[in-house]
Amino acid sequence: MKICLYYEFYHLLGEKFLKSIGGGIFTSYLNQKKMLQKEDIQFTEKWMEDCDILQINFHGLNSLRLIKKARKENKKIIIWGHTIAENFENSFIFSNSLSPTIKKILIYFYNLSDIIFCPSEYVKKVLLFYGLPEKKLIVRTNGVDTKKFLKNPKLREKGRKKFKIKGTAIGNVGIVIPRKGIDVFLKLARQFPNEEFLWFGKIYNALLTDPLPEALPSNVKFTDNIDHDKEMPMGFNSLDIFLFPSYEETQGIAILEAAATGLPILVRDIPAYDGWLTHNVNCLRAKNNQEFKKYLSLLIKDKKLRTRLGKNALKLAESEDISLQAKKLKKIYQNLLKKIQA
Protein backbone atom coordinates (compact mmCIF):
# COMPACT_ATOMS: atom_id res chain seq x y z
CA MET A 1 0.00 0.00 0.00
CA LYS A 2 1.37 3.38 -1.04
CA ILE A 3 -0.31 6.76 -0.59
CA CYS A 4 0.26 9.91 -2.61
CA LEU A 5 -0.30 12.66 -0.06
CA TYR A 6 -0.78 15.85 -2.05
CA TYR A 7 -1.18 19.47 -0.99
CA GLU A 8 -0.85 21.80 -3.94
CA PHE A 9 0.18 24.89 -1.94
CA TYR A 10 3.02 22.87 -0.41
CA HIS A 11 4.60 22.55 -3.84
CA LEU A 12 3.72 26.07 -5.02
CA LEU A 13 4.76 28.02 -1.93
CA GLY A 14 7.18 25.74 -0.10
CA GLU A 15 7.20 24.35 3.42
CA LYS A 16 9.12 27.26 4.96
CA PHE A 17 6.59 29.83 3.74
CA LEU A 18 3.60 27.73 4.80
CA LYS A 19 5.07 27.27 8.27
CA SER A 20 5.37 31.03 8.62
CA ILE A 21 1.73 31.71 7.76
CA GLY A 22 0.25 28.60 9.38
CA GLY A 23 -3.32 27.64 8.56
CA GLY A 24 -5.47 24.64 9.35
CA ILE A 25 -5.03 22.82 6.03
CA PHE A 26 -1.24 22.88 6.29
CA THR A 27 -1.38 21.67 9.91
CA SER A 28 -3.74 18.88 8.89
CA TYR A 29 -1.36 17.95 6.08
CA LEU A 30 1.55 17.69 8.52
CA ASN A 31 -0.59 15.59 10.86
CA GLN A 32 -1.48 13.27 7.98
CA LYS A 33 2.21 12.73 7.28
CA LYS A 34 2.82 11.85 10.92
CA MET A 35 -0.10 9.41 10.92
CA LEU A 36 1.29 7.57 7.90
CA GLN A 37 4.73 7.44 9.48
CA LYS A 38 3.35 6.07 12.75
CA GLU A 39 1.71 3.16 10.95
CA ASP A 40 4.70 2.61 8.62
CA ILE A 41 2.54 3.31 5.59
CA GLN A 42 4.60 4.08 2.52
CA PHE A 43 3.81 7.48 1.02
CA THR A 44 5.06 10.10 -1.39
CA GLU A 45 4.22 13.79 -1.71
CA LYS A 46 4.42 13.69 -5.50
CA TRP A 47 2.51 11.39 -7.83
CA MET A 48 4.24 8.11 -8.67
CA GLU A 49 2.93 5.32 -10.86
CA ASP A 50 3.01 2.74 -8.04
CA CYS A 51 0.69 4.74 -5.74
CA ASP A 52 -2.53 3.01 -4.76
CA ILE A 53 -4.39 5.98 -3.28
CA LEU A 54 -4.29 9.69 -4.09
CA GLN A 55 -5.16 11.86 -1.07
CA ILE A 56 -5.89 15.48 -1.98
CA ASN A 57 -5.85 18.45 0.42
CA PHE A 58 -6.64 21.38 -1.88
CA HIS A 59 -8.82 21.99 -4.92
CA GLY A 60 -6.36 23.42 -7.42
CA LEU A 61 -5.62 22.92 -11.11
CA ASN A 62 -2.71 20.58 -10.53
CA SER A 63 -4.75 18.61 -8.01
CA LEU A 64 -7.42 18.23 -10.69
CA ARG A 65 -4.79 17.02 -13.16
CA LEU A 66 -3.59 14.38 -10.68
CA ILE A 67 -7.15 13.28 -9.90
CA LYS A 68 -7.87 12.69 -13.58
CA LYS A 69 -4.56 10.87 -14.01
CA ALA A 70 -5.26 8.66 -11.01
CA ARG A 71 -8.76 7.90 -12.24
CA LYS A 72 -7.43 6.78 -15.64
CA GLU A 73 -5.03 4.43 -13.86
CA ASN A 74 -7.85 3.01 -11.70
CA LYS A 75 -6.39 4.38 -8.46
CA LYS A 76 -8.54 5.27 -5.47
CA ILE A 77 -9.06 8.95 -4.63
CA ILE A 78 -9.62 10.57 -1.25
CA ILE A 79 -10.30 14.30 -0.96
CA TRP A 80 -10.22 16.14 2.35
CA GLY A 81 -13.27 18.33 2.99
CA HIS A 82 -11.27 21.15 4.54
CA THR A 83 -13.14 23.73 2.50
CA ILE A 84 -16.83 24.52 2.17
CA ALA A 85 -18.35 27.68 0.70
CA GLU A 86 -19.48 28.72 4.18
CA ASN A 87 -15.94 28.98 5.58
CA PHE A 88 -14.71 30.73 2.45
CA GLU A 89 -17.04 33.67 3.14
CA ASN A 90 -15.92 36.67 5.21
CA SER A 91 -12.28 35.76 4.67
CA PHE A 92 -10.76 37.78 1.83
CA ILE A 93 -11.75 40.59 -0.51
CA PHE A 94 -14.55 39.40 -2.85
CA SER A 95 -14.83 36.05 -1.02
CA ASN A 96 -18.55 36.54 -0.38
CA SER A 97 -19.35 37.30 -4.00
CA LEU A 98 -17.20 34.37 -5.15
CA SER A 99 -18.79 31.93 -2.68
CA PRO A 100 -21.49 30.57 -5.08
CA THR A 101 -18.82 29.84 -7.71
CA ILE A 102 -16.56 28.23 -5.10
CA LYS A 103 -19.46 26.02 -4.05
CA LYS A 104 -19.89 24.74 -7.62
CA ILE A 105 -16.15 24.07 -7.93
CA LEU A 106 -16.13 22.19 -4.62
CA ILE A 107 -19.10 20.03 -5.60
CA TYR A 108 -17.36 19.18 -8.88
CA PHE A 109 -14.12 18.24 -7.09
CA TYR A 110 -15.75 16.25 -4.31
CA ASN A 111 -17.78 14.24 -6.83
CA LEU A 112 -14.50 13.03 -8.37
CA SER A 113 -13.54 11.21 -5.18
CA ASP A 114 -14.13 7.72 -3.82
CA ILE A 115 -14.08 9.06 -0.26
CA ILE A 116 -14.43 12.54 1.22
CA PHE A 117 -12.91 13.02 4.67
CA CYS A 118 -15.16 15.40 6.62
CA PRO A 119 -13.35 17.08 9.55
CA SER A 120 -16.61 17.16 11.54
CA GLU A 121 -20.21 15.97 11.51
CA TYR A 122 -21.09 19.53 10.55
CA VAL A 123 -19.11 19.30 7.32
CA LYS A 124 -20.81 16.01 6.52
CA LYS A 125 -24.22 17.65 6.92
CA VAL A 126 -23.18 20.56 4.69
CA LEU A 127 -21.88 18.27 1.95
CA LEU A 128 -25.05 16.19 2.13
CA PHE A 129 -26.96 19.45 1.62
CA TYR A 130 -24.71 20.11 -1.40
CA GLY A 131 -25.97 16.84 -2.85
CA LEU A 132 -22.88 14.68 -2.27
CA PRO A 133 -23.70 10.97 -1.75
CA GLU A 134 -23.59 9.89 1.90
CA LYS A 135 -21.67 6.70 1.06
CA LYS A 136 -18.64 8.86 0.16
CA LEU A 137 -18.63 10.87 3.38
CA ILE A 138 -16.47 9.73 6.31
CA VAL A 139 -16.02 11.92 9.38
CA ARG A 140 -12.30 12.12 10.17
CA THR A 141 -10.77 14.48 12.69
CA ASN A 142 -7.70 16.47 11.63
CA GLY A 143 -6.15 15.18 14.85
CA VAL A 144 -3.59 16.73 17.18
CA ASP A 145 -0.02 15.81 18.08
CA THR A 146 -0.20 15.60 21.88
CA LYS A 147 3.54 14.95 22.09
CA LYS A 148 4.19 18.36 20.58
CA PHE A 149 1.32 20.32 22.08
CA LEU A 150 1.31 19.74 25.83
CA LYS A 151 1.59 21.67 29.06
CA ASN A 152 5.20 22.68 29.60
CA PRO A 153 6.26 25.08 32.42
CA LYS A 154 9.60 25.83 30.74
CA LEU A 155 7.89 26.79 27.49
CA ARG A 156 5.44 28.93 29.47
CA GLU A 157 8.29 30.84 31.10
CA LYS A 158 10.07 31.25 27.77
CA GLY A 159 6.91 32.32 25.95
CA ARG A 160 5.80 34.87 28.53
CA LYS A 161 9.27 36.39 28.40
CA LYS A 162 9.33 36.46 24.59
CA PHE A 163 5.85 37.97 24.26
CA LYS A 164 6.30 40.24 27.30
CA ILE A 165 3.33 38.84 29.23
CA LYS A 166 2.95 39.77 32.89
CA GLY A 167 -0.68 39.17 33.82
CA THR A 168 -3.54 36.95 32.69
CA ALA A 169 -3.04 36.14 29.02
CA ILE A 170 -6.04 35.55 26.75
CA GLY A 171 -5.11 34.39 23.27
CA ASN A 172 -6.24 33.19 19.88
CA VAL A 173 -4.46 31.37 17.05
CA GLY A 174 -5.39 31.80 13.40
CA ILE A 175 -4.89 33.90 10.30
CA VAL A 176 -6.13 37.45 10.84
CA ILE A 177 -9.31 37.59 8.76
CA PRO A 178 -12.83 38.80 9.65
CA ARG A 179 -14.29 35.27 9.77
CA LYS A 180 -12.06 34.47 12.72
CA GLY A 181 -13.88 37.00 14.91
CA ILE A 182 -11.44 39.88 15.10
CA ASP A 183 -14.29 42.25 15.96
CA VAL A 184 -15.26 40.26 19.06
CA PHE A 185 -11.64 39.76 20.10
CA LEU A 186 -10.96 43.52 20.04
CA LYS A 187 -14.26 44.36 21.72
CA LEU A 188 -13.46 42.00 24.60
CA ALA A 189 -9.99 43.48 24.90
CA ARG A 190 -11.56 46.92 25.38
CA GLN A 191 -14.00 45.49 27.95
CA PHE A 192 -11.17 43.87 29.93
CA PRO A 193 -8.41 46.50 29.85
CA ASN A 194 -6.49 44.93 32.75
CA GLU A 195 -5.91 41.65 30.91
CA GLU A 196 -3.49 40.91 28.05
CA PHE A 197 -4.80 39.74 24.67
CA LEU A 198 -2.56 38.01 22.11
CA TRP A 199 -3.40 36.88 18.59
CA PHE A 200 -0.92 34.48 17.00
CA GLY A 201 -1.27 34.43 13.22
CA LYS A 202 -0.47 35.87 9.84
CA ILE A 203 -1.66 39.40 9.03
CA TYR A 204 -2.45 39.69 5.33
CA ASN A 205 -2.04 42.72 3.11
CA ALA A 206 -4.99 45.13 3.04
CA LEU A 207 -5.38 44.32 -0.67
CA LEU A 208 -6.39 40.79 0.30
CA THR A 209 -8.58 41.30 3.36
CA ASP A 210 -9.96 43.96 5.68
CA PRO A 211 -7.08 45.60 7.58
CA LEU A 212 -6.88 45.83 11.35
CA PRO A 213 -8.08 49.11 12.88
CA GLU A 214 -5.34 51.72 13.06
CA ALA A 215 -5.99 52.30 16.77
CA LEU A 216 -5.72 48.99 18.59
CA PRO A 217 -6.37 48.63 22.34
CA SER A 218 -3.12 49.01 24.29
CA ASN A 219 -3.54 45.54 25.82
CA VAL A 220 -3.63 43.73 22.43
CA LYS A 221 -0.71 42.20 20.53
CA PHE A 222 -0.82 40.66 17.05
CA THR A 223 2.30 38.58 16.38
CA ASP A 224 1.94 38.35 12.55
CA ASN A 225 4.16 35.58 11.09
CA ILE A 226 5.03 32.86 13.57
CA ASP A 227 6.49 29.41 12.94
CA HIS A 228 3.71 26.98 13.84
CA ASP A 229 6.03 24.04 14.56
CA LYS A 230 8.71 25.83 16.54
CA GLU A 231 6.87 28.67 18.28
CA MET A 232 3.22 27.75 18.71
CA PRO A 233 3.75 25.16 21.50
CA MET A 234 5.44 28.03 23.35
CA GLY A 235 2.63 30.40 22.35
CA PHE A 236 -0.10 28.15 23.71
CA ASN A 237 1.81 27.60 26.94
CA SER A 238 2.16 31.32 27.48
CA LEU A 239 -1.64 31.70 27.63
CA ASP A 240 -4.10 31.29 30.50
CA ILE A 241 -7.32 31.26 28.46
CA PHE A 242 -7.92 30.31 24.83
CA LEU A 243 -10.46 32.59 23.15
CA PHE A 244 -11.66 31.45 19.71
CA PRO A 245 -14.56 33.66 18.49
CA SER A 246 -14.54 32.39 14.89
CA TYR A 247 -17.86 32.65 13.06
CA GLU A 248 -17.36 29.58 10.88
CA GLU A 249 -15.10 26.50 11.03
CA THR A 250 -14.94 23.00 9.61
CA GLN A 251 -13.34 21.80 12.83
CA GLY A 252 -10.70 24.13 14.25
CA ILE A 253 -7.27 22.53 14.73
CA ALA A 254 -6.13 25.39 16.96
CA ILE A 255 -8.84 24.37 19.43
CA LEU A 256 -7.43 20.85 19.61
CA GLU A 257 -3.92 22.23 20.13
CA ALA A 258 -5.16 24.50 22.93
CA ALA A 259 -6.98 21.53 24.46
CA ALA A 260 -3.81 19.41 24.32
CA THR A 261 -2.03 22.19 26.24
CA GLY A 262 -4.75 21.95 28.92
CA LEU A 263 -6.14 25.44 28.36
CA PRO A 264 -9.71 26.45 29.25
CA ILE A 265 -11.46 27.19 25.96
CA LEU A 266 -14.08 29.81 25.08
CA VAL A 267 -15.62 29.49 21.61
CA ARG A 268 -18.62 30.73 19.66
CA ASP A 269 -21.62 28.40 19.76
CA ILE A 270 -21.60 27.21 16.12
CA PRO A 271 -22.60 23.87 14.51
CA ALA A 272 -19.01 22.82 13.75
CA TYR A 273 -18.49 22.05 17.44
CA ASP A 274 -21.59 19.92 17.96
CA GLY A 275 -20.78 16.44 19.21
CA TRP A 276 -17.26 17.11 20.52
CA LEU A 277 -17.17 20.48 22.29
CA THR A 278 -19.63 20.40 25.20
CA HIS A 279 -20.56 23.59 27.03
CA ASN A 280 -19.43 23.68 30.66
CA VAL A 281 -17.70 20.31 30.27
CA ASN A 282 -14.63 20.82 28.06
CA CYS A 283 -15.29 24.41 26.98
CA LEU A 284 -17.68 27.35 27.21
CA ARG A 285 -19.77 28.16 24.12
CA ALA A 286 -21.01 31.74 23.73
CA LYS A 287 -24.11 32.44 21.64
CA ASN A 288 -23.58 36.22 21.42
CA ASN A 289 -21.32 39.08 22.48
CA GLN A 290 -23.01 39.34 25.89
CA GLU A 291 -22.22 35.70 26.63
CA PHE A 292 -18.62 36.12 25.44
CA LYS A 293 -18.21 38.91 27.99
CA LYS A 294 -19.98 36.94 30.73
CA TYR A 295 -18.01 33.72 30.19
CA LEU A 296 -14.67 35.44 29.82
CA SER A 297 -15.29 37.26 33.09
CA LEU A 298 -16.07 33.92 34.78
CA LEU A 299 -12.88 32.35 33.43
CA ILE A 300 -10.73 35.26 34.58
CA LYS A 301 -12.18 35.20 38.10
CA ASP A 302 -12.67 31.47 38.67
CA LYS A 303 -9.44 29.47 38.71
CA LYS A 304 -11.28 26.24 39.62
CA LEU A 305 -13.45 26.62 36.51
CA ARG A 306 -10.35 27.14 34.36
CA THR A 307 -8.73 24.05 35.85
CA ARG A 308 -11.80 21.84 35.39
CA LEU A 309 -12.39 22.91 31.79
CA GLY A 310 -8.68 22.57 31.00
CA LYS A 311 -8.52 19.01 32.34
CA ASN A 312 -11.56 17.95 30.34
CA ALA A 313 -10.19 19.68 27.25
CA LEU A 314 -7.02 17.63 27.64
CA LYS A 315 -9.08 14.42 27.73
CA LEU A 316 -10.72 15.50 24.48
CA ALA A 317 -7.33 16.14 22.85
CA GLU A 318 -6.04 12.75 23.96
CA SER A 319 -9.00 11.05 22.24
CA GLU A 320 -8.10 12.96 19.04
CA ASP A 321 -4.38 12.20 19.21
CA ILE A 322 -2.79 11.35 15.87
CA SER A 323 -1.46 8.01 17.18
CA LEU A 324 -5.02 6.77 17.75
CA GLN A 325 -6.28 8.34 14.53
CA ALA A 326 -3.48 6.75 12.50
CA LYS A 327 -4.78 3.25 13.25
CA LYS A 328 -8.29 4.23 12.13
CA LEU A 329 -6.89 5.81 8.98
CA LYS A 330 -5.00 2.63 8.10
CA LYS A 331 -8.21 0.58 8.31
CA ILE A 332 -9.96 2.99 5.94
CA TYR A 333 -7.15 2.62 3.41
CA GLN A 334 -7.24 -1.16 3.69
CA ASN A 335 -11.01 -1.31 3.22
CA LEU A 336 -10.83 1.04 0.25
CA LEU A 337 -8.19 -1.10 -1.48
CA LYS A 338 -10.17 -4.29 -0.81
CA LYS A 339 -12.85 -2.89 -3.13
CA ILE A 340 -10.32 -2.91 -5.97
CA GLN A 341 -9.31 -6.51 -5.24
CA ALA A 342 -12.96 -7.57 -5.01
Care to describe what's here?
- With 342 residues, the protein is an alpha/beta fold.
- The chain folds into 2 domains: 2-143 and 322-341, Rossmann fold (3-Layer(aba) Sandwich); 153-319, 3-Layer(aba) Sandwich (Rossmann fold), CATH 3.40.50.
- The protein contains 14 helices and 12 strands.
- The strands form 2 sheets. A 6-stranded parallel β-sheet has the order 2-1-3-4-5-6, with helices on both faces. The chain has a 6-stranded parallel β-sheet with strand order 9-8-7-10-11-12, with helices on both faces.
- Helix 4 links the parallel strand 3 and strand 4.
- Helix 8 (153-162) packs across helix 10 (228-237) and helix 11 (253-260) packs across helix 13 (303-319).
- The chain is globular and about 60 Å long.
- The mean pLDDT is 92.
Q: Shape from CA axes?
A: globular
**Helix-strand pattern:** EHHHEEHEHHEHEHEHEEHEHEEHHH
Main sheet makeup: 6 strands, parallel
N- and C-termini, Cα separation: 16 Å
Indicate the structural class. alpha/beta
The domain tally reads 2
The CATH class of the largest domain is: Alpha Beta
Give the number of DSSP strands.
12
Q: Share of helix among residues?
A: 40-55%
Q: How large is the count of helical segments?
A: 14
